Amino acid sequence: MRILFGNQKFFNRNLRYVSSKSISYKDTLNMPKSKFASTMKNRIKCENDIRQKFPVNQLWEWQTKQMRRPLFVLHDGPPFANGPLHIGHFLNKIQKDIIVRYKLLNGHRLDFRPGWDCHGLPIELKALQENKRNSNDKDPIIVRKLARQFATEALEKQKQDFQSWGILADWNNCYRTFDKEFIVDQLRLFWRLYQKDFLYRQYKPVNWSPSVQSALAESELEYNDKHKRSSTGLPPDEVQKAENSGKKAEAYIVADL
Fold it and tell me: What predicted TM-score, i.e. pTM, was given to this entire model?
């Protein structure tokens, strides 16, 4: 196949001219152009000036004293205290900040108490990693101590970053899931659920991690969409029992994952 150009000499001359210049990749993209600076000079000074002109803590204290206003409560689903903040934390907190500020402008008094989830496998693994310990050889008491120390440091750093974003919340009254008061309240609520017969026991598949010897939450699972199972099987004893009794056997599937 041949491609013909109206002016082959002009094309060849232009091709040699373009190829001889050093062009960055971004110059080849047809992106919107703006005079707005992508980086702000004196960013730290500008941020401090905004905090002084619009003190969030004073605004929060003022609105808590407006007792005639109807109360609006926003429950904060706590993030894990397991490391630096990322764009997901930003999106979550900014959305909540928009909601509480909207309610404040519409004449409500606010109750938005931030919190942190200080338990769980991610925190334990981070604590063991920070202290260079093997997760297969661990004393529960030591792991809990390391995890508590790591979570405390992580949540304090996260708290500072949240406040630097200007999030309107009760930062002087945060909750932490490893505080004794919080744990006792959870046990009392669990007992109330039990008394009202809201609890039941039922079989459920458990996601198990052989490496850390612990159950995993759905959010901790990673699925390989390209995986293909090569074998399935039924326990012979169950099949034999069903044939002998003439009843339909329960289905058991064993698959290599």
Answer: 0.66
